[in-house]
Design brief:
Largest sheet: none
CATH class of the largest domain: Mainly Alpha
Distance between the termini: 103 Å
Strand content: under 5%
Number of domains: 2
CATH superfamily of the largest domain: Type II secretion system (T2SS), domain F
Structural class: mainly alpha
Radius of gyration: 28 Å
Shape: elongated
Number of strands: 0
CATH architecture of the largest domain: Up-down Bundle
CATH topology of the largest domain: Receptor-associated Protein
Length: about 375
């Protein structure tokens, strides 16, 4: 015991020399499913009577994610210095979402920390799976576009330059499509083009990041994304599903309605919903129902959410209807992902075929014209 106490004191002393808010640990990112696994493991260990300090020390051995292990060790250090778990996890907002800290605070105050961890672990796992599926929808199109770009560049660098020299030697009037291809070949092979493209790309990326860092800029960008065909509706449904899911678990755990809606907004991933969180609370203080407020924000939330919430308010069980809304929109997103993949695949393949066909036409049309001039 004395040895454990001295180790704990030593760890606390080391932790006291750094502040996670300003150190590299605060910038650590961990996959949500890894955090979900950690949360469930911690709940199991606490339920079986293992002290929280010992449980965290055991869980700090993260071979696959060593940086996460350092974060868990830091949590143990802070607990050893008398901080609560909710306050400790709040120091790592890029690892633990705001809902995590809020539910830990509620679990500590009610003596139901293990139950809070169980529910939180289930939510993190479900949300992580859902978010990963949404991200995977962009993988196949991005792969096809990348392969098409590489194929086109290979043609411009290897095949077309050789034909350009042949066409020049023919001394014939080249078709428009061939002249365009010659121009593009010269352009792509010019280092200045790539330098200009790199400068413009970097400037655009920096500008987007700076705009996204500001609430008004993030909202403007998100509104543009929501206008995209099919993909915009996918984003709207996905953010609404995450909002409803986080709000449901917060409300069911015992948090007040205003805090519930705030946490749901922060978990949604939508800057529009996040910006509207304060307005929801303001509407509640003015006597409006949540469903009435949502009905006035059709461009921010998916349309049917207001109907789900109104049914929950009338039945006196808002949590159940939020859960049903989350399940409904998650199923819609899954269906849309399958539809998007099925719709995009032929268009992407058609695009690749169009590129190859255009290049072939630009090569064979001059040759056909030249052979026609030679005569029989």
């Amino acid at each position: 015991m004395a040895h454990q106490s001295s180790n704990r004191s030593g760890n606390a002393g080391q932790a006291g020399s750094r502040d996670p808010k300003h150190g590299w640990e605060a910038k650590v990112t961990v996959p949500p499913l890894r955090v979900a696994t950690f949360t469930k493991q911690l709940a199991i260990m606490l339920r079986n009577g293992i002290p929280i300090m010992q449980a965290l020390a055991t869980l700090s051995h993260q071979e696959e994610y060593p940086n996460f292990g350092v974060v868990v060790s830091s949590l143990a250090d802070r607990l050893g210095r008398g901080h609560s778990l909710s306050r400790s996890v709040a120091e790592f907002p890029r690892v633990f979402p705001p809902l995590f800290s809020a539910m830990m605070d509620l679990g500590e105050s009610t003596g139901r920390l293990t139950e809070s961890l169980d529910r939180l672990g289930d939510w993190l796992e479900r949300d992580g799976d859902f978010f990963r599926r949404v991200k995977s929808a962009a993988v196949y199109p991005a792969f096809v576009v990348a392969v098409s770009a590489l194929l086109t560049l290979a043609l411009f660098y290897t095949v077309l330059p050789q034909f350009v020299q042949i066409f020049i030697g023919m001394g014939i009037q080249l078709p428009v499509i061939t002249r365009v291809m010659i121009f593009l070949t010269d352009l792509v092979r010019n280092p200045g083009f790539w330098m200009l493209l790199g400068v413009l790309g970097c400037a655009g990326w920096i500008g987007l990041r700076r705009a996204w860092a500001r609430p008004a800029g993030a909202c403007a960008i998100f509104r543009i994304l929501l206008r995209l065909p099919l993909a915009g509706r996918l984003l709207s449904y996905a953010s609404t599903a995450r909002f409803a899911s986080a709000a449901e678990i917060s409300l069911d755990t015992g948090l007040d309605l205003a805090r519930t809606l705030e946490l749901g907004a922060r978990a949604s991933g939508s800057p529009l919903i996040l910006a509207d969180a304060a307005q929801i609370v303001k509407s509640l203080t003015q006597g409006l129902q949540v469903s009435e407020h949502l009905g006035l924000r059709a461009g921010i939330y998916a349309p049917a959410l207001a109907h789900f919430v109104r049914a929950g308010e009338e039945a006196g069980d808002l949590g159940i209807m939020l859960k049903k809304a989350a399940s409904f929109y998650e199923e819609e997103v899954n269906h849309m992902i399958d539809t998007l993949s099925a719709v995009l695949e032929p268009f992407l393949l058609l695009g690749v075929a169009g590129i190859v066909g255009t290049v072939l036409l630009s090569v064979f049309l001059p040759m056909y014209s030249y052979l026609g001039q030679l005569g029989p």
